[in-house]
Design brief:
The chain is α/β, with parallel strands linked by helices. The chain has one domain: Alpha-Beta Barrel (TIM Barrel), CATH 3.20.20. About 40% of the residues lie in helices and about 15% in strands. The protein has 11 helices and 8 strands. It has helices spanning about 15-30, 35, 45-50, 80-95, 115-125, 145-150, 165-170, 175-190, 210-220, 245-260, 275-285; strands spanning about 30-35, 55, 95-100, 130-135, 155-160, 195-200, 225-230, 265-270. The protein has an 8-stranded mixed β-sheet, sandwiched between helices. Strand 3 (about 95-100), helix 5 and strand 4 (about 130-135) form a beta-alpha-beta unit. The relative contact order is 0.13. Its main location: cytoplasm. It is an enzyme of class 2 (transferase). Keywords: 4Fe-4S, Cytoplasm, Iron, Iron-sulfur, Metal-binding, S-adenosyl-L-methionine, Transferase. Its EC number is 2.8.1.8. InterPro entries: Aldolase_TIM (IPR013785), Elp3/MiaA/NifB-like_rSAM (IPR006638), LIAS_N (IPR031691), Lipoyl_synth (IPR003698), rSAM (IPR007197), rSAM_sf (IPR058240).
Amino acid sequence: MAERKPEWLKIKLNTGENFKELKRMMRGKTLHTVCEEARCPNIYECWANRTATFMILGDMCTRACRFCAVKTGLPTELDLAEPERVAEATEQMGLKHVVVTSVARDDLKDGGALIFAETIRAIRKRAPLCSIEVLIPDFLGNWDALKTVMDAKPDILNHNIETVERLSDRVRSKAKYNRTLELLSKSKEFQPDVPTKSSIMIGVGETIEEIIATMDDLRRMDVDILTIGQYLQPTPKHLPVKKFYHPDEFAKLKEEGLKRGFKHVESGPLVRSSYHAHEQVESAAKAL
């Protein structure tokens, strides 16, 4: 059993005017954010700085991963007007970089790829100076769906490997370790100039050697950006935390990642896939 949550994981709550304004905007446009749905620990910091990760395709996921707090079940509808509302919100917020993710929609033939593509295009029209990152599901290995997203030319393609190979089937629902690697490789085949990104959460029972092996696997797929963060159990029904890593250990993992050739590594206890995303993209772009 893991020890009590350490001091470095305590979060400062910041519910100032920017936070309140952004929350009103999201509710007014009936938009979802992964910040809220996944109970991200950085929501107060990010929203106070007027940044957010939009979650499209509804708020009901067809998978039930053992680490994720997003609601699971069978979605009942597809909102075809959602891309335009996301673009409007991006424009009104004056974002320089926007992250668009989604629930898994295994009930749809293309997994929602067309809505991703239309969201990218809608943001391009309304906010042409805003860079766009998409954090996509694996589309159950439907590479035509992946091509639909890549043909819309996001500025960065993000797909999370989440954990080490040994624990993948236990931690993730339906997603497969090798399928994730193949998706990241295919993304580069479709759009060689679009940087790719992936994320590992640690603290679910992996070893340092397994984390390093996962880095090596991602680099073999030519992944450009890596984020590493501490897993935090969202509810008692989710996977328990096996270990809280010290910030010094995260610093060492960052060194290992950079040694292996990642253009940018964001590694820390509260790091999440979209945390400081704008800085990550800028850093990687300079190295490309």
